[in-house]
Amino acid sequence: MSGKYLVKPRFVQQCLALALACGANAAAAAAPDASPALVELVQRHAEAQRDFDQATLKTVTAENYVEVSPAGEVDSREKMLSFYAPEQKRPPPQLQVSEPMVRVLGETAVVLAKLTYTMGAEGQARTFAMRASYVAQLKEGKWRLVAAQYTGIRPPK
To answer: Residue 135 is part of which domain span?
Structure first.
């Protein structure tokens, strides 16, 4: 083999570095940060529950959705939707979704958030909070909730 056809090691290293950099950029472009979309999904879900908006609840939850209530009851999607039927609607409390933490694991994500509700008139307002855990699944390009669990937060003493 003639020396003029040999590839120098330094050139190979540069080509590999360039290929790795391009691959990393392509992977980053293919997998954008899903955190904002997941926080928005949780916000929409919480607001739809507050507003007894069954249509939105159907949109943001998967067919196999299940939730654990603050009382520890396990409810199917159908039971959850029946609870939020328009005829069950009550005056909505103020709602704040805060402290989101998102963990994306491929096509599954876990979102933790604090839900703070304020009910009643200003002078007689009552505020309580829950920690909510959500599991979302990416299917056909859309995130949908497959599970939620609510845990009450004790008020400070």
So the answer is: 34-153
Closest to 115 in 3D by CA, of 72, 88, 152: 152
Q: Is residue 18 part of a domain?
A: no
pLDDT category of residue 18 using cuts at 50, 70 and 90: very low
Q: What are phi and psi of 69, to 5 degrees?
A: -75, 170
Name the pTM for this structure: 0.74
Please name the residues in contact with 127: beta carbons below 8 A apart, sequence gap of 6 or more. Answer: 116, 117, 118, 119
Q: Distance of CA 141 to CAs 37, 88, 138, Å?
A: 12, 33, 6
Amino acid identity for residue 115 in this structure: L
Tokens of 110: 């876990």
Q: In 3-state terms, what secondary structure has residue 50?
A: helix
